[in-house]
Amino acid sequence: MPENDSRTGDYFWSDHEAGAELTRLRLIEHFNDPSTFRQLDAIGVEDGWRCLEVGAGAGSVVRWLSRRVGPSGHVVAADLDVRFLGDISAANVQIRQCDITKDPIEPSSYDLVHARSVLAHLPDPLAVLQRLKTALRPGGWLMVEDVDNGTVEATDPTHPCAAGFDLCAQARIKFLLAGGVMDLRYGRTLPSHLEMLQLTDVGNEGVAIVGRGDSPMSQLMSQSFGPMDEAMVANGVVGQPDVSDAQSALQDPSFLYRGGLIVAVWGRKPLE
Fold first, then answer.
1. Are 99 and 81 in contact (CB under 8 A)?
2. Alpha-carbon distance 78 to 128, whole Å?
3. Less packed terminus of the chain by CB within 10 Å, N or C?
C-alpha cells in the first residue's frame, strides 16, 4: 500500500519538484478556472468583500478575487505550500501558510470561503467543512469544489489502450483510498456533506469534459497519476503492461476518454 503520513494536513503532491508541480497546478487552473469564476460571479462577489481562499495553489483564484473585491476588500490566500504565491503583490492579499485541519481561522469573518481540490486529501473532510462554515459571517457564502474520478473511462472500449486505461483509473481510486492517502471520488460525497451544514440557498453543479490523448488534459493526468501508477505496479495492484497501456493512451491523439467530474457546491450561512 502507499505510505500513509499521519500528518492531518498532508498533500499527496507536496514532494513534487517545484517546476513540475507548478506546471501541474497551472494545468488544473486551465481546466477548472472557467467554471470556478462563473460560479463565483453568480454568487455575486463584489467590492469590499473579505474572502478566504483555502488551498490557493498557484494563485489564479486569489488574483481573480483580489481584482473583484478591490482596494476596500481583502483576500487571505491559505495553503500548506505557499511557494507559488510569492509573486502576488496586491495590497489587498495576505499570504498565509496554514493547515486548514487545525490552524486557527477567524470566526464569523468572511463574506466568502472557497476551497478547490482540497478536501479529497483530508481524512475528515466534513470536519473541515464545519470549520469553514464557522469562518463565515452570517449571510456569507461557502463554495467548495472537488473531483469524482469514478467517471474516468475510455469512450471507445475497443481501442487497444482502453482496457489498461480503465483498469488503472479504477485501481487508483481503491489504492489511494485503502492507503488513507486521498479519496479520488470525494466529489460525489460533497453535496451530501454540504447538506449537513444546514446552509441556505444551496446549489451544486458537476462538470466533466471528454479529453484526448496528447492534450493538456492528458498532460495533467500523466503528471498527477504517473507516480501512483508506479507505486501500484511495485505493490502488485496492477501489472506493468496495463500501466504502459494507460500511459500510451494519454499520448495517443486517437484515444478519447471522459475526465473526472468536477463537483461544485455552494450555500450561505443563515442570518443570525
1. no
2. 14
3. C
Pairing status of strand 256-258 against strand 210-212: antiparallel
Percent of the chain with pLDDT over 70: 94
Q: Quickly list DSSP for the chain.
A: -------TT--TTTTS-HHHHHHHHHHHHHHHHHHHHHHHHHHT--TT-EEEEES-TTSHHHHHHHHHH-TT-EEEEEES--TT-TT---TTEEEEE--TTTS---TT-EEEEEEES-GGGSS-HHHHHHHHHHHEEEEEEEEEEEEEGGG-EES-TTSTTHHHHHHHHHHHHHHHHHTTS--TTHHHHHHHHHHTTT-EEEEEEEE--EEESSSHHHHHHHHHHHHHHHHHHHTTSS-HHHHHHHHHHTT-TT-EEE--EEEEEEEEPPP-
In angstroms, the CA 58 to CA 29 distance is 8
User: Which three three-digit cell numbers place residue 57?
Assistant: 495553489
Q: Across-strand partners of 148?
A: 261
Three cell numbers at 100? 486548514
pTM, whole model, 2 decimals? 0.91
CB proximity list for 31: less than 8 A, separation 6 or greater: 209, 216, 217, 220, 262
Q: CB–CB of 237/171 below 8 Å?
A: yes
Query: Dihedral angle at the C-alpha atoms of 240, 236, 231, 206, nearest 10 degrees?
Result: 90
Q: Looking at residue 18, what is its pLDDT? A: 80
Task: Please tell me the predicted confidence (pLDDT) of residue 1.
Answer: 32
User: What is the reported pLDDT for 88?
Assistant: 95
Residue 215 has pLDDT above 90, yes or no: yes
